[in-house]
Design brief:
Elements: H1 2-13, H2 15-27, H3 39-64, H4 91-106, H5 110-149
Helix pairs in contact: 2-4, 2-5, 3-4, 4-5
């Protein structure tokens, strides 16, 4: 139960900030130009749902398989390489960026598209400079074998 509560807390703080709070601030005052939903809103909604599903699955996998959370301050204790992690080493970040792309599409916002690009660059730097060295130190050869089999962004 405590792991579940920690997972919710870190979800609200980490991806919640990047995927929902900051976009809400960026888009505050924005109104759709068309009455009702057009194809961009429907497609954007589906993309946001897809990204959210990826993110929720990853959070669950970190708790179930990794016995930790998505936060670097409360990380998984075991290397998670099942499910989506069999195809891409960073599906959680893919989920957040997918949400942002869906929001950009939904609101037809170039500003949100630029924000998504900046977030992707920041995530990539964080992964390369912090996460990967930490995981190499924490899991050693197991992580090295995993990296040899699965690409950072799904491309081997």
């Amino acid at each position: 139960m405590f792991l579940f509560l920690r997972s919710i807390l870190w979800t609200l703080l980490c991806p919640g900030t990047f995927a929902f709070l900051l976009p809400w601030y960026i888009l505050s005052g924005f109104t759709l130009n068309e009455p009702g939903w057009g194809w961009r809103q429907y497609l954007g909604f589906v993309v946001v749902l897809t990204g959210t599903s990826i993110l929720v699955w990853c959070i669950y996998a970190f708790a179930r398989d990794g016995r930790g959370t998505l936060s670097p301050l409360d990380p998984a204790r075991r290397l998670v390489i099942q499910g989506l992690y069999r195809y891409v080493r960073n599906p959680m970040y893919v989920g957040v960026v997918t949400i942002l792309l869906g929001e950009a599409l939904f609101f037809s916002s170039w500003t949100m598209l630029g924000y998504a690009a900046v977030v992707f660059v920041v995530f990539n730097l964080f992964i390369r400079l912090h996460e990967e060295p930490y995981l190499r130190k924490q899991f050693g050869e197991e992580y090295e074998r995993y990296c040899a089999q699965v690409g950072r962004w799904g491309i081997c």
